[in-house]
Amino acid sequence: MSTCQQTAQLKPSRGALNTLKKLAKLHSKKLIVTLLLVVAENVVYLLYPLMAGFAINAIIKGQSLHALLYALVVFIMWAIGAARRSMDTRTFARIYAGLAVPVILAQRKDDHSHSTIAARVTLSREFVNFFETHLPLLITSLASIIGAVVMLLTIEFWAGVACMVVLVFFALFLPSYTRKNEMLYEKLNDRLEKEVGFVGYASENTLNKHYNFLAQVRIRLSDREAYGYLAIGIAAAFLFAMTIMLMTVKGVGNAGHIYSVMTYMWMFAMSLDDGPSLLEKYSQLKEIGKRVNTGLVD
Q1: pLDDT at residue number 5
Q2: DSSP label at 252?
Q3: Pairs from 131-136 (Cβ < 8 Å, separation ≥ 24)
Q4: Which of 86, 195, 219, 225 is 20 to 30 Å apart from 162, CA to CA?
């Protein structure tokens, strides 16, 4: 499509979800291949603790051939991961190249300053980053959390129930947490849109105030993320303590079972640990979506 045709078809495209949908529609084939690799990687990842448990029991019984199947699972997981990473750069570099021009043209049409346009082109990169980094992470985290809970409910029921209780507890705080993050990103992005202009004419005092303000907002965002990690750490410690006590009281003597339970617990905790950064990214994208007209064609 020529530049003239693109310009003629430009339509306001505000809203993070709307922009993400349009990007997904425009690049559906590339994204499907990439996301299928993510799904395949996660399926193998979910089987990993169970296969490791079988391997441990096989080693104890002297069944080396059965135990070696674990090595095959490890190889498959890494091979899929390598293929996905190779695809990622090719796919998302091209998607951003196709996004930057419509964003610039749309901001020009809306008669924004050069400073605002430069900032918004940079901000628009976050939509591509979502597909490249955060959507795979989101899929991995959700698959790991759900998969770990299901497996724990199957092999160590009350540990699985405890994990579900923790999920419900944190879900209660999501709305207020994301709203506050969005407010902070609004302040941050308002300043970033003025940054190019400040560089050109602002006094030393104004520049100091500008960058100190940016630092303060980023510190507040970082502190909120850190508090989230701490809360998850406390919950994880509780889960591990409870599970260890349960298995000790039950007198579980199967080494493979113990390993599988502890690994699924760790998988749950580590995936939950991705929550604060994913919520921060969600708030950031939502705020960017309100201000950036990407000019994407329906």
Answers
A1: 39
A2: -
A3: 131/20, 131/23, 131/24, 131/31, 131/34, 131/92, 131/95, 132/88, 132/91, 132/92, 134/278, 134/281, 135/35, 135/38, 136/34, 136/35, 136/38, 136/84
A4: 225
- Helix residue spans in 130-203 (DSSP H): 135-155, 157-171, 174-192, 195-201
Q: Give residue 233's pLDDT.
A: 93
Q: How far apart are CA 222 and CA 40, in angstroms?
A: 33
Domains in the chain: ranges and CATH: 8-291 (1.20.1560.10)
Determine the pLDDT at residue 237: 95
Q: Is the dihedral of CA 122, 126, 129, 131 positive or negative?
A: negative
Nearest CA-CA partner of 207 in 194, 198, 217, 215 = 198
Averaged pLDDT of the chain: 84
> What is the number of alpha carbons within 13 Å of residue 67 lying toward its C-beta?
11
Structure tokens at 289: 């979506």
pLDDT at 1 (0 to 100): 40
Spatial distance between the Cα atoms of 265 and 287, rounded to a whole number of angstroms = 34
Q: Evaluate if residue 269 carries a pLDDT over 60.
A: yes
CA distance 100 to 94: 10
Question: How far is the C-alpha of 87 from the C-alpha of 132, rounded, in Å?
Answer: 10
Distances (CA, A) of 210 to 119, 128, 194, 205, 288: 15, 28, 9, 9, 20
How do residues 113-160 score in pLDDT, each as one tens digit? 777 777 778 888 888 888 888 888 888 899 889 999 999 999 999 999
Half-sphere exposure of 199 (CA within 13 A, CB side): 10
Find, among 233, 213, 224, the residue nearest to 284 by Cα.
224
Q: What are phi and psi of 110, to 5 degrees?
A: -80, 0
- Whether residue 5 contacts residue 286, with contact meaning beta carbons closer than 8 Å, is answered with no
Chain centroid to Cα 66, Å, comes to: 36
